[in-house]
Design a protein that fits this description.
The chain contains one helix and eight strands; from the N terminus they run αββββββββ. With 139 residues, the protein is mainly beta.
């Protein structure tokens, strides 16, 4: 009976002291477009936190991939209008990482309210998250 109690106590202590894994989370999504001669330029950003980090010596590395979709005022979905990878290395543990994109929208895009959605994947764990932002195209 003492062995069972000792084993149970050890298991409770082991699970209580283990690192809690955070969920990948996106926040502070922002987007705006400004008019150009041949259309607009869209600038959009989002910040990610809760991603896994590899520690190698005194360096921390995080690897994220992303793509963005654009929803037009008439409800049309333009898939993967932007995509990329973010590989960040730092001497200190990373708290968050900005993800940014610039997209040229030609004159075929009409004025109105648009929605851009970022889809982000933590390449070290496979965890995914998404977040959107609204912006307006106007003359």
């Amino acid at each position: 009976m003492k062995k069972i109690i000792l084993l149970f106590t050890f298991f409770v202590l082991l699970t209580a002291c283990s690192n809690k894994r955070e969920d990948l989370e996106l926040f502070n999504a922002e987007s705006f477009a400004y008019s150009m001669d041949s259309g607009w330029e869209l600038n959009a950003t989002v910040r990610a936190k809760g991603f896994e980090q590899d520690k190698n010596g005194n360096k921390f590395t995080a690897k994220l991939s992303y793509f963005a979709e654009l929803e037009t005022p008439d409800g049309r979905l333009l898939e993967k209008i932007s995509s990329g990878n973010v590989d960040k290395t730092s001497a200190e543990k990373l708290i968050d990482i900005p993800i940014e994109t610039q997209i040229k929208l030609d004159s075929t895009f009409v004025t109105g309210n648009y929605k851009i959605t970022f889809f982000v994947k933590d390449e070290l764990t496979g965890r995914k998250a998404y977040l959107w932002s609204f912006f307006e195209l106007s003359n």
